[in-house]
């Protein structure tokens, strides 16, 4: 049930991301969900990558646990860009990389939120 919810939410995030600011926020939200649930979905463009099967294999090799089930679905974006959406369980190293990115982002935001700390010039 949780996997269906995560896949549904990820699909909604992929479909609704239009503007670059919105897209970046959606990617960050997707990364947080991926770090928490271990489930990852992404779109691979057939127009950007004419050899889509090669790009899909490389993307999935970076992120997916090869011993777990995955899904691949043909997809066309609102701007008629053909491609595929894949969803899979993340491998341990990919999940660690996502966790590190989200922790670094949170630390960066926390540092930027405290402008009172100023280093003295020598």
Summed up, what is this model?
The chain is of the alpha+beta class and 122 residues long. Helix content is 54%, strand content 18%.
Uncertain spans, ≥5 residues at pLDDT below 50? 117-122
How many individual helices? 4
Give the overall shape, derived from the CA principal axes: globular
The helix-and-strand class reads: alpha+beta
Distance between the termini: 59 Å
Total strand count, please? Answer: 3
The string of secondary-structure elements, in order, is: HHEHEEH
Counting copies of identical and different chains, the oligomeric state is: single chain
Mean pLDDT comes to: 78
Largest sheet: 3 strands, antiparallel
Strand order of the largest sheet: 1-3-2
Helix percent reads 40-55%
| Strand content bin | 15-25%
Characterization of the model:
The protein is α+β, with helices and mostly antiparallel strands and 122 residues long. Helix content is 54%, strand content 18%. The chain has 4 helices and 3 strands. A 3-stranded antiparallel β-sheet has the order 1-3-2, sandwiched between helices. Strand 2 and strand 3 form a beta hairpin. The C terminus is likely disordered.
């Amino acid at each position: 049930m949780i996997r269906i919810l995560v896949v549904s939410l990820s699909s909604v995030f992929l479909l609704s991301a239009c503007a670059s600011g919105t897209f970046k926020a959606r990617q960050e939200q997707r990364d947080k969900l991926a770090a928490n649930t271990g489930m990852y979905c992404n779109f691979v463009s057939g127009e950007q990558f004419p050899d889509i099967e090669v790009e899909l294999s490389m993307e999935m090799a970076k992120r997916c646990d090869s011993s777990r089930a995955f899904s691949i679905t043909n997809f066309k974006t609102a701007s008629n860009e053909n491609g595929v959406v894949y969803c899979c369980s993340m491998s341990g190293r990919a999940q660690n990389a996502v966790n590190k990115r989200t922790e670094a982002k949170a630390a960066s935001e926390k540092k930027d939120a405290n402008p009172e700390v100023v280093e003295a010039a020598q």
